[in-house]
Amino acid sequence: MASSKSHSTPPLPFLFVCLTLFLLCSVFDRVASQSHNPRLGTAVVAAEVAGDGIVDNSTLLLAEDRTRRKDPLDGYKKYGGGWNISNEHYWASVGYTAAPLFVVAAAWFVIFGLTLFLSCCYYCCCSQRRYGYSRAAYALSLILLTFFTISAIVGCVVLYTGQGKFHGSTTDTLKYVVSQANLTAENLHNVSDSLAAAKKTGVDNVFLPSELQTKIDQIETKINDSSVTLASRTDKNSHQIQNVLDDARLALIIIAAVMLGLAFLGFIFSILGMQFLVYILVVIGWILVTGTFILCGVFLLLHNVVGDTCVAMDEWVLNPTAHTALDDILPCVDGATANETLLRTKEVTYQLTDVVNQVLTNVSNVNFSPNFRPLYYNQSGPLVPVLCNPFHSDLSDRACSPGEADLSNATQVWRNYVCQVSSPSGICTTVGRLTPDMFSQMSAAVSLSYGLYRYGPFLVQLQDCTFVRDTFREISHNYCPGLRRYSKYTYAGLVMVSAAVGLSLIFWVIYARERRHRVYTKRFDEATGPGYAAEYKG
Ligand SMILES: *[C@@H]1O[C@H](CO)[C@@H](O)[C@H](O)[C@H]1NC(C)=O
Ligand SMILES: *[C@@H]1O[C@H](CO)[C@@H](O)[C@H](O)[C@H]1NC(C)=O
Ligand SMILES: *[C@@H]1O[C@H](CO)[C@@H](O)[C@H](O)[C@H]1NC(C)=O
Ligand SMILES: *[C@@H]1O[C@H](CO)[C@@H](O)[C@H](O)[C@H]1NC(C)=O
Ligand SMILES: *[C@@H]1O[C@H](CO)[C@@H](O)[C@H](O)[C@H]1NC(C)=O
Ligand SMILES: *[C@@H]1O[C@H](CO)[C@@H](O)[C@H](O)[C@H]1NC(C)=O
Ligand SMILES: *[C@@H]1O[C@H](CO)[C@@H](O)[C@H](O)[C@H]1NC(C)=O
Ligand SMILES: *[C@@H]1O[C@H](CO)[C@@H](O)[C@H](O)[C@H]1NC(C)=O
Ligand SMILES: *[C@@H]1O[C@H](CO)[C@@H](O)[C@H](O)[C@H]1NC(C)=O
Question: Which of 224, 272, 423, 536 keeps 20 to 30 A from 362, CA to CA?
């Protein structure tokens, strides 16, 4: 029969298939070569720092191995600056990794567009009658059409599940970061509250000299401002980021759904031989596939930046003393300074508590005779419990003795020991050992003391970035693997969908054509008898 001369299928689409496959291969090659193990570099750096004990005074480049990519801004030399988001060369070199996909998108757009245009011309102007039918070509195109349609469907499923998981892991990460920011803001707010309470003292400042008052005032304003700013920024940014994530998810779901529908409809129309509809879908698909290839590039870029950031966080956590690109963002003080700060807060707590206790033991809890003014103010009744000092005089931790009032609630405890005073003399007229004035000043001292005791360590952790390091460690260990994996899934799904739908488009056309020829040949065979068609075609 008419099986011998089968080279009548237009060569352009096949050429295009080859080109696409070649480009895709080169993309995967590039991607694969980027995923060298970055941990090794980290381990080596860590071992060097720990092993030799040399204080590294140069700048540590974060994720240096991973980020060694060609930099188009620097004559395609390898970029060597490590993870540094304030460096345009970093962005250029990361962006360059996605370039192949943008090239594929452009190539697809131009070449497929041209092919489409040329085949249009071919069908419209030239030989409407030059039909060739080959059973092998027909079968092959049907098989490939089915194969690519199934691939497209699988790609859509991968894309759908991948984006779902990616959205989940980004949302979880965001939640974690927000909760850490919330915790910080809340702590700062509490510190500022306790400083504000320390400010509210009576007329004469026995415990807090006035210059200290002014300092506390300034610090309190600063801390309160930081707390308010942090809280509002966190709120605003997290909402914005969440919105972007939700939009991205919606967009990806729509893409997956549209591509699925396109692949399915194209397959059906093509099988049923609905030429016109197939051509409409081909034109729609041509543009959509260009878009998805561009999106692939964007996701590859995202995937690489996520990977770099995770490795950079890891290395930063492992090298607490090194100077890094993160120093611009996170100004951390060194451990010695932090220890010094912590000691200072302990010292102040200790001394304030000590002063309060001396007043309690030497004045309030002593029954003076009336001629010992001003120590005598008619104090009477049960003894006021002294404050529990959380530190010994050498600033080591101290456990409370029974009967001592806890720093956290001493104010409530002491409220029961306040007497009423006659206004001019300031002498107690009722039972009690603390005048309201003394009470309010002691409360202020306790509030300050407690604030420093309770939140001092946290402030120091903020100061030396321990808090941030812990947060980063948590992110890098618990959230990064998911982020990396699912951004890769989404990327892979997009590539699959783009490639499979792109190839399907080509085979819709080829198959529809083969089918038409088959129908034509059959009809022709019926009219003229078998065996004649081949000769007729030429
Ligand atoms: C640190 O760097 C400075 C100049 O950048 C240099 O003078 C000094 O010797 C270096 N110290 C160490 C321990 O490498
Ligand atoms: C953070 O704080 C804001 C406002 O205070 C609150 O709406 C949000 O739920 C908190 N988020 C987390 C994760 O705790
Ligand atoms: C801040 O203070 C409030 C009320 O005193 C308390 O409920 C909360 O646990 C404190 N927050 C932190 C982080 O200590
Ligand atoms: C902190 O500042 C806000 C406004 O900036 C103010 O409403 C709030 O009372 C202040 N809190 C303290 C404890 O000073
Ligand atoms: C990061 O890039 C900026 C801008 O190019 C540069 O000033 C800075 O020194 C770089 N930081 C590191 C650690 O390389
Ligand atoms: C800070 O103090 C802790 C104990 O309080 C000690 O283990 C640590 O080595 C000190 N760090 C520095 C840098 O002095
Ligand atoms: C209070 O009494 C103790 C002994 O009980 C004494 O060491 C201390 O100096 C006295 N403090 C004042 C302020 O009088
Ligand atoms: C104060 O706190 C201590 C322990 O934290 C508790 O035993 C005591 O009952 C509290 N007192 C008041 C009046 O809340
Ligand atoms: C001293 O306090 C007692 C109550 O403990 C009261 O009865 C007495 O009137 C007070 N003396 C003066 C001079 O106010």
Answer: 423
**What's the pLDDT tens digit per position in 396-449?**
899 988 988 898 889 999 999 998 888 777 788 888 888 888 888 888 888 888
Please provide the DSSP assignment of 314-331 as one string.
Answer: HHHHH-TTSB-GGGTT--
Contacts of 169 (CB under 8 A, 6+ apart): 479, 482, 483, 486
Domain match, 313 and 397 both: no
Is the distance from CB of 441 to CB of 202 less than 8 angstroms? yes
DSSP assignment letter at 433: S
Respond yes or no on whether the N-terminal peptide bond of residue 331 is cis (omega within 30° of 0): no
Report how far residue 452's alpha carbon sits from residue 450's, in angstroms, rounded to the nearest whole number.
5
Indicate whether residue 179 lines ligand 2 (CB < 6 A): yes
Please check whether residues 435 and 491 belong to one and the same domain: no
> Residues 18, 283: contact at Cβ < 8 Å?
no
Count of C-beta atoms within a 10 Å radius of residue 496: 23
Ligand 9 binding pocket includes 427 (Cβ within 6 Å): yes
Contact 89, 81 (CB under 8 A): yes
For residue range 126-136, list pLDDT tens digits in order.
655 555 667 78
Distance separating alpha carbons of residues 535 and 5, to the nearest angstrom? 10
The response to whether residue 238 sits with its C-beta less than 6 Å from ligand 2 reads no
CA of 380 relative to ligand 7 center, distance in Å:
20
Is 428 strand, coil or helix? strand
Domain limits for position 407: 336-463
- Specify the number of domains making up the chain: 2
| Pocket-testing residue among 57, 58, 323, ligand 1, by greatest number of atoms within 8 A of Cβ | 57
Whether residues 165 and 265 share a domain: the answer is yes
Domain boundary among 414, 439, 463: 463
3-state class percentages of the chain: helix first, strand second, coil last, to nearest 5: 70, 5, 25
C-alpha 113: how far from its chain's center? 38
Task: State which of 184, 186, 409 you would mutate to test the pocket of ligand 3, scoring each by most atoms of that ligand within 8 A of its C-beta.
Answer: 186
Given its phi and psi angles, is residue 5 left (phi above 0), alpha (psi -120 to 50 degrees) or beta?
beta
Distances (CA, A) of 200 to 217, 322, 443, 487: 10, 43, 9, 53
C-alpha span between 384 and 364 (Å, rounded): 7
* 70-71 and 77-78 strand pairing: antiparallel
pLDDT in tens, 272-308: 888 888 889 999 999 999 999 999 998 899 899 989 9
Strand partners, 427: 422
Residue nearest to atom 11 of ligand 1 (CA): 57
Which H or E run includes 226? Answer: helix 210-272
Phi, psi torsion values for 439, nearest 5 degrees:
-60, -45
Ligand nearest to the CA of 89: 5
Nearest CA to ligand 3 atom 1: 190
Closest atom of ligand 9 to 381 CA is 5
Is the distance from the beta carbon of residue 57 to the nearest atom of ligand 1 less than 6 Å?
Answer: yes
Residue at which a domain ends, from 421, 437, 463: 463
**Token pair belonging to 45:** 């750096």
